[in-house]
Specification:
Layout lengths: L1 E3 L5 H11 L5 E5 L12 E4 L5 H7 L5 E4 L8 H15 L3 E5 L10 H14 L5 E6 L1 E2 L7 H7 L1 E4 L6 E5 L1 H13 L7 E4 L4 E3 H12 L4 E4 L2 H10 L4 H17 L6 H7 L6 H8 L8
Helix pairs in contact: 1-6, 2-3, 3-4, 7-11, 8-9
Amino acid sequence: MILVTGAAGKTGKAVLDALAKTDRPARAWLRRPEQAQDVMAATTVVGDLEDSSLWREACRGIEALYLICPNMHPRELQITRLAMQAAHRGGVKRFVYHSVLHPQTEEMSHHWRKLRVEEEIFRSGLPFTILQPCAYMQNLLAYRQQIESGGIYPVPYSVRSRFALVDLADVALAAARILTEEGHVGAIYELSGPANLSSKEMAQTLADRIGRKVEAVQTPLDEWESAAAAAGIARESIRSLTAMFRYYDRHGLVGNSNVLGWLLGRRPTSFKQFAARTFSAQGDCI
């Protein structure tokens, strides 16, 4: 049995889908009971990741644990400590932590928190593996209507900053392999796509796919903050994201795809392949 936390989120669902193809049973940790109908899992645990009694239940009979914390959670370290305690008690053989590309970046507080978590895992004595994925290609789908209808891809940082993007499906396949086979204990794997692209280049790839002009446009950061606040995003999350966008504006966030390619046994999915799979060209039947 393999436990996946954050199982109702896009990463958790993708990992469960990949595990389903291995015929290994999975246990999904969900926040709410109604989420069970949307995940592929043999059993479920429902409740708060900060509930220590649930951790004892969740890790009973578990061979491997995939720890995904809620995005930018301020108490991720405390959640990880609960997970590690339960993993020790349950005799978990593989403790896999979902981190982030370049957690060493102190300017981005949620990255820096994950580095502190990684450090705690090193001291735990558990048989760990750490995955450091970059941003998902699927994140662009939040702008799908603006891209397809208005020909605009808006970003709150320089359109020339370069980024590693990865297909979530590739990350999930790599995670499933690490959770189900020997040989990955003690590893830290950077999971990146095969190219570091600017938003301008992404927009051109999307334009080539959908058959209309698409322009990457930098949104002023204060406008983004106002829109985020109006949308109900928590103040602390807005502060963290604003710091991240400032960093992106100056430095981007680049990576290397060699490790992911080795894990997959093939070249990772390119942004062009993702666009072809996800966006409809003019004249395509939908």
